[in-house]
Each structure stands twice: as structure tokens, then as C-alpha cells.
Amino acid sequence: MANWRHRVWRHLSSSQGAGYSTKPSRINKTMLNDLRRIRPMIQRRIENRAKDYPVQEIVPVAKDILKARQNLLTNVTVLLKAFPVLRCKFCSEVFVGKEGHLIQTCRSYIRRGNNRLHEWVPGSINDVLVPVESFHLHNMSQGVIRHQQRFDYDRVPAILELCCQAGAIHPEEILEYVKVHDSPQISDEEFRSISTEDLKYVGANALMAWEKVRAGLKKLLLVYPSKVCKRCKEVHVGPSGHKARLCGVFKYESYQGTHYWEKAGVNDLVPEKVVWHRRPQDPVVLVNEGRNYYGHAPAVVSLCSHAGALVNNTRYACEMKPQGLSYPLSNSIPNHET
Description:
The protein is α+β, with helices and mostly antiparallel strands. Helices cover 38% and strands 10% of the residues. The strands form 4 sheets. It has a 3-stranded antiparallel beta sheet. A hairpin with a 5-residue loop joins strand 1 and strand 2. Helix 3 runs antiparallel to helix 5, helix 3 (59-82) runs antiparallel to helix 8 (196-220) and helix 8 (196-220) runs antiparallel to helix 10 (299-307). The longest helix has 25 residues, at 26-50.
């Protein structure tokens, strides 16, 4: 079969006036020899580049991110005690309110249908602040993580890994930091002592902390490289992505599950999780017929707005439509089949 293929290619190349050879190209051999010769120099440059980190001018920014993140987790935990958050049982839809909406946007493959009603269950803080994890590196100059080494490295929140590489956390203390600070608790007695005015203050603080975290990450990403997979949104904090073959996104699954890395942004490390936002002029239950009237907002911003935080002057006011018209309910809410 191989000889027949070579004969065909020789015939085609000879008919077009070009030569055909089945032997390895001398140019490829020359390039391979050059790569072997300069490989030690490339490795030395990578090791020397790691000596410039952490950048001392950026360390205060990373520490401010840690403080704002801790403040954000604590305030959101308090708000979840007062304002329930619901999530869909079959898809990733989230809604802030006591009753879920009737907008037909459920597209889960489990239900074998598109544009179906959601089936709501109680949510948690992970539905408001979506956790994004990455591999914890011991130092920036270490080798690329292979597929066989994927269980030898711990998984930590990507924000903490970025702040760790920026010098705000010691690499050996990051796991202890996660256990202590990532699960804030508030008792029922402490929550009962919070008044309505205090909830407004908590919501305003949570919104301010959210903006501080995102603004600080934007500065850190200009100095410390981070990668995100174009297909599955896997995040890796480091100069180059890992080689763990974990990318399996059905239609876009690549060969052997390898990731397709590109530069990461703020939304890759801190997803906004946009949800339908219920305004004061909207009905108690959002209906499918009025979806063009309703606004959207990140889940944490919608939660802070329900607590009384002022969001009309923020950058989210355009998509939230605070002064927009509501859907006129001339008839009763229709019954939809689930």
C-alpha cells in the first residue's frame, strides 16, 4: 500500500515538473540539531526569568485582593441568610429570589429538550461566586505538568494561586489558608442581631469588595501570565499551560483531551455568572412573555441590589435596566408545562 502511494505521488509530481522524495528532509534534520543546541539556553532563560518574581511593587496589590476576597466571602455568606438563591436542578441557571422565574431557558441535555422551564432547588455560595481552581505550582520555573503528574499537584482557587505567585502567600501555606479563610460561618444568633440598615451596609461592602477583587486581578494579569483553555475554560496560572489531558467537551474535544491554551482574562478567574434580575416594578414571578423587558446582572450584584446597595451608577446599570418598563400583566400568569 505504501509503495503504491509513493508511485502515485511520483507520478503527480513528475507531471507538474517537481521532484518527489520519500527520504527525510535535510532541512528538518538541521532544524532539529539547532533546537537541541539552543535548548539549554532556553531553559536557562526560563530559570533566570523566575528570579525577577515576585515583583515587589505588585505585592501590595495582591494583599489587597486577599483582603477584599475575604470581605466578599463573609458579606455574601451573610446576605445568603436573608435572601435565598435558587439554582436549576438540570442546568447552571441561577436566580436570586424566593420563587424562581418562569422563563423557558433550560437547555439541559438530561431533559432532552430546549427552552424548557427550570426546576428550582436551593442554591449555595458557589452558585453566586463560581469557584475556579488551578494546579498549585511550587515555583514559576518548574517544568510543565505532565498528564501522569496531574495527581501529584494540589488544586487551589485560581485567585489564591495568582496571589501566591505574586508574593502575598507563601507557597507552603496556601492549603492552610484555604481551610481557614474559604469557609466563613455565621451563626443564627449573629444573623438575628443584624438589622435592615445593617444589611444595606453589608450589601454595599460586598459590592465594593467585588469591584476591588476584579480591579486588582486586572493589574496582576498584566504582570503574571495566566492561561485558559479555549474549549473547556480550564485555568492555569503560570507562564505555560499544563499537559494534563482533561479537555473533554463533547463536540469540541481535541485529540487525546489536550487543552487549547490562550491568554486568560478577569472573567476567566472570576466569572460574573449573569442571571435574570428582578426589579421593583417587575411582577413577583418573571414570566416568559416579558423576557425582553427584564434586565440582567451578575449574581453577586443582583444579591447586593436586593439588600439595598445602590447599583444605578455602576457599570451594570445598562444591562439591569433599572428605569425600564415592565411587562404589562393584563392576564393572569399562564400555566406552562414542565
